Amino acid sequence: MAGPEDPRFDVMGNLHAYLEQTFPRVYSKLDVEKIQKWGLLLTWKGTDEHLKPVVLMAHQDTVPVNPSTIDQWTYPPFDAHLDESGWIWGRGVADCKNTLIGLFAALDRLIEDDFTPTRTIILSSGFDEEIGGHRSAAYLASTIESRYGKDGVALVLDEGFTGVDTAYGVPFARFGMAEKGAVSVQIEVLTTGGHSSVPLSAHTGIGVLAQCITALEAHPATPLLQKGNPLLQQLQCAADHGDVDKQWRRRIRNPKQWKNIGLEMAKQDPIARAFLGTTQAVDLIEGGVKLNALPEYASASVNYRIDFLSSVNSTLEHISSILEPVVADLNLTFSSYGSHPKVDNNVVRLSMVGTSAIEPAPLTPTDGDAWELMAGTTRHIWEGAVVAPSGMVANTDTKYSWPLSRHIYRFVPGSLDLIKNFHTVDERIHIDAHLTGVRFFYKLLRNTEGWQAA
């Protein structure tokens, strides 16, 4: 794994220079530290050191742009073009430079307004979130923990997939109160080679691999709407406050209906399916070297996003239980997570990919002081909005912040109608959404004044 000294990260220096030139008041007022060379840790010390700080997060890096798609962009992906309609186009404007710049802008305005925080405010910004955060977010979180202790932070706020939009007939603001886990596995098939004119069995190594993949896709995890799932909490809020059908409202309030509702939602909507259980995606496959040579090696890699209420181990066990009878029927050895390390032919190996295992995040409480601060601020910016729990189906840098606080929120402070195309062609954000985000961060920090959470 390349470290922060890798020259590919040097471009972050240009971003740091821009931030310092654009927000000189922030750099002069706050303590600015570089963690792991490119990680930014800004601290605005409060007047009461007995109060737990708040931590606001946004990462600096972006996913790359596939060169083959550049001509599909309306404007060049790294020009940050502002069009006549108020849209800013470019890679990273939605994920999540809008948040990073919005936080700096809010801090700058607070300084201009002579705000003095009672509670310490921390901005934590890593540079490798899109490749796991191991080089920066992990060190930023451990630095904060070394200073404030375990559970020493009142509130952590980072990027999310949910924001403010119209749902169930009313404005809905959804906070990510949970985050799915993740793990990836590799299936390797090692078989005897030879000339393809004389196949040695009904299935070549690639055929065996296809049988394994087919079995996995035929036995996905069952989507389940159950207590503790943030989608159920969201639906219950919709039943209480949304403009919804009376029969639907009765079904949501009846636990005996939850199983059927979950199955119906999963069938109709892939996003709902992702919220309702562990998902699997076969993303990489390799095998064979020549058309007339039997493949001696074939492999596939499968990515799992683990249900909010499940675990890495249960996911790994499920995968193994599906593959074991398939491999046995093919009369091959099944080496499950290293169970037969010395077998190197006519074997199917199942292994976990590197450090891919991430447990589902602890569930953030949906009541208490932190919830009231977040919900109250949100209702102030978006009048009439129903505030509801939601979840994060991907992973964020907050996975390193679990020791810091029970109160971790993942949220896009803007209308999702005005934030488009995360991670793909024509990523863009409307200036109105960006400015609303600045207002949200400003008001949130203003509201910490007099906030009596420990």
Structure described in brief:
By secondary structure, this protein is an alpha/beta fold.
Low-confidence stretches: none
CATH architecture of the largest domain: 3-Layer(aba) Sandwich
Largest sheet, in brief, is: 6 strands, mixed
CATH topology of the largest domain: Aminopeptidase
| Helix fraction by DSSP (H/I, runs of at least 4) | 25-40%
Strand element count: 20
Please report the distance between the alpha carbons of the first and last residues: 39 Å
How many H/I helices? 12
Overall mean pLDDT score?
96
Strand order of the largest sheet: 1-2-6-3-7-18
The global form is globular
Q: What is the percentage of strand-forming residues?
A: 15-25%
Broad structural category: alpha/beta
Could you state the oligomeric state of the chains shown? single chain
Q: Total domains, how many?
A: 2
Task: Kindly provide the radius of gyration, computed on alpha-carbon positions and rounded to a whole number of angstroms.
Answer: 25 Å
Element layout with pairings:
Blueprint lengths: L11 H11 L1 H6 L1 E5 L3 E6 L9 E4 L23 E2 L4 E3 L3 H20 L8 E5 L11 H12 L6 E4 L5 E4 L2 E10 L1 E10 L3 E2 L9 H14 L11 H12 L4 H7 L5 H11 L1 H6 L3 E9 L5 E2 L2 E10 L5 H18 L3 E4 L10 E6 L16 H13 L4 E7 L15 E3 L8 E2 L7 E3 H16 L8
Parallel strand pairs: 3-6, 3-7, 7-18, 9-17, 15-16
Antiparallel strand pairs: 1-2, 2-6, 4-5, 5-20, 8-9, 10-14, 10-16, 11-13, 12-14, 19-20
Helix pairs in contact: 3-12, 5-10, 6-7, 11-12
